[in-house]
Amino acid sequence: YGGLYAPAGVTYEESDPIWEFNAAISPGWAIVTDATASGGQYRRIKNAPEGSSARFWFSGTRFRLYFQQGTGYGKLDVYVDGTKIGRIDQYYVGTRWWTALFSGLTPGNHVVEFRVVGGKASIDAIRPMP
Predict the structure, then answer these.
(1) Is there a cis peptide before residue 27, judged by omega within 30 degrees of 0?
(2) Measured between alpha carbons, how far is residue 57 from residues 46, 81, 85, 91, 127 in Å?
(3) Bridge partners for 51 per DSSP
(4) What are the per-10-residue average pLDDT scores of the chain (130 residues)?
(5) What is the SS3 assignment for the chain?
(6) CA–CA distance from 1 to each of 39, 72, 80, 110, 123 (Å)?
(7) Calpha distance 99→93 (Å, rounded)
(8) In contact, 112 and 80? CB cutoff 8 Å
(9) How far is residue 7 CA from its own chain's centroid?
(10) Which residues pair with 128 in a beta bridge?
């Protein structure tokens, strides 16, 4: 990436240019307009093959991901600097907005990658923290 790392303490929408969305399918990560989403829209991918992901570059020791849970959603495997640190289950009976917090990172610059598992996933925003 171009060497830019998002500073901690700010919430970054999925439309921020620091995000990089990758998909081995078309249309890939679609922009969905929804008044209840942070910033009025979010990204969603359906029928995603293995290898579809979203990356974000930030400075800090923890971060919170904002997303939509719902019927038919799969999971996101979470990698920081190439190491898997967790998994987010986005399945829920019905629909709701939810968050996941990951902490314990060494201070400094990091790259977080969310890899789609199960075909359908969403990303609304991320907030890195000091």
Answers:
(1) yes
(2) 24, 10, 16, 26, 11
(3) none
(4) 84 96 87 96 92 95 98 96 98 97 97 95 98
(5) CCCCCECCCCCEECCCCCCEEECCCCCCCEEEECCCCHHHEEEEECCCCCCCEEEEEEECCEEEEEEEEECCCCEEEEEECCEEEEEEECECCCEEEEEEEECCCCCCEEEEEEEEECCCEEECEEEEEC
(6) 24, 32, 15, 12, 20
(7) 16
(8) yes
(9) 17
(10) 63
What pLDDT is stored for residue 27 in this prediction?
A: 79
Return d(Cα 24, Cα 51) in angstroms, integer.
Answer: 7
Reading the block at residue 130, the tokens are 């000091």
Residue 42 CB neighbours (<10 A): 25
Residue with tokens 């640190």: 85
Nearest to 121 by CA among 82, 55, 68, 79: 68
Q: What is the pLDDT of residue 26?
A: 77
